[in-house]
Amino acid sequence: MQTLETTTLRISEIFFSLQGETSRVGLPTVFVRLTGCPLRCGYCDTAYAFTGGGNISISEILNQVAHYKTHYVTVTGGEPLAQKACLVLLTALCDAQYSVSLETSGALELSNVDTRVCKVMDIKTPGSGEMTKNNWFNLAHLTQQDEIKFVLCDEADYQWACEIIYNRQLQKICPILFSPVHAELDPATLAAWILRDQLPVRMQIQLHKLLWGEGPGR
Questions:
Q1: Overall number of domains in the chain
Q2: I need a labelling partner for 8 at 20 to 30 A (CA). Which of 28, 156, 165, 182 fits?
Q3: Which residue, 122, 188, 135, 126, is CA-closest to 153?
Q4: CB of 41 closer than 8 Å to CB of 49
Q5: Cα separation, 68 vs 15, whole angstroms
Q6: How far apart are CA 113 and CA 175, in angstroms?
Q7: Are 12 and 33 in contact (CB under 8 A)?
């Protein structure tokens, strides 16, 4: 029988930082970054997590997370759900009374994710190069505690995202985030489009990059 001591995950890094995105932006957070991802988005800024890392038991992950005095934990990647034991980790973190968020591409099924977890699901735009990987059935597994994120490369991505929002009535499901690709789409330009079109979205800029630049994992 698998236990938290014997169940392992391949981990790229565990670190303490400020949450740079989502509605939790600015909150001191422990990040657990899992290794591996089946997608290859053109703007990916964590390609170093595609490979490498080391196998760590869920029990040891919990020990490392507990070293930091924060209520917030984000499980990210790569694509964390590519490792099946990620589901066990998410539940263990919730059982330990953390407020847990999951950053996922949305390409893999979300139905088995612990309902206490805040799922932050990307919808891949044409500019990402991975639009065909969107699993639209996952929308049925989102609630008001979750968030949908669009990472936008250009105006074509913006217009495509607007159509998806209105055609699928995403604003009725959960909060929607628009994020410009760093150094590709000018944030002020995106802000002007959102105000012009009066979109029901939250614009976000990656706080960690404003504070610390392009360094990995921060």
A1: 1
A2: 28
A3: 126
A4: no
A5: 9
A6: 19
A7: yes
Please name the residues in contact with 210: beta carbons below 8 A apart, sequence gap of 6 or more: none
Residue partners of 52: CB distance under 8 A and separation at least 6: 12, 35
Q: pLDDT tens digits, residue range 4-39? A: 999 999 999 999 999 999 999 999 999 999 999 999
Which of 30, 17, 69, 47 has its CA nearest to residue 206? 17
Q: Which among 106, 102, 196 has a CA at the least distance from the CA of 158? A: 196
Rounded to two decimals, the pTM is 0.95
- Evaluate whether residue 217 is within a structural domain: no
Containing domain of residue 92, as a range?
Answer: 8-209
Three-state DSSP string of 85-133: CHHHHHHHHHHCCCEEEEEECCCCCCCCCCCCCEEEEECCCHHHCCHHH
Residue found under tokens 């994710």: 113
Residue 46 CA to residue 215 CA, distance in Å, equals: 10
Cis ω for the linkage preceding 52 (within 30 of 0): no
In this structure, what token pair is assigned to residue 122?
């990307």
At 49-97, the pLDDT tens digits run 999 999 999 999 999 999 999 999 999 999 999 999 999 999 999 999 9
Please report, for the domain that includes residue 89, its CATH number. Answer: 3.20.20.70
